[in-house]
Design goal:
globular; TerB-like; 7 helices; mainly alpha
Amino acid sequence: MPKRFADAYDHLRSYLGLVDDATPEPGPGDDDEHRAVLEVLVATMLVDGTVREGEFDEIERIGRERGWNSQTFSFTQGLGAAVAAARDARDADPSMAALLRSARQRITTPEVRTQIVEACRTVATSDGETAPTEATWLHEVAKAFNG
């Protein structure tokens, strides 16, 4: 938990301009794209019906390492809304096809579209196993973003 607090604190400092950041300021579409990425990663975590702390940690690490956090969007702060969106999508349709369709429309950057498949694979295997439901979901994610 202290790591999450530190990440949120760093995000707040950056947002307030207290950190010198050389990265360009994201446009409004970037935040929606990053929200969509987070929703797909959270859906990957939820699809097998078992949520582990390591999966949360992996999602946060991915956001940080891939540069999907910005001055106006943080994976840590967006996690609650993403969990709610993924749960609502799963309750409406266990395949979460609508969530995946929405994410496919919102994730438009070619590099991010390529990275999302591997990021989902990383989250799915972070607990040391891949359940059949996760394998099916990963197949659907790959179809949505690779072909």
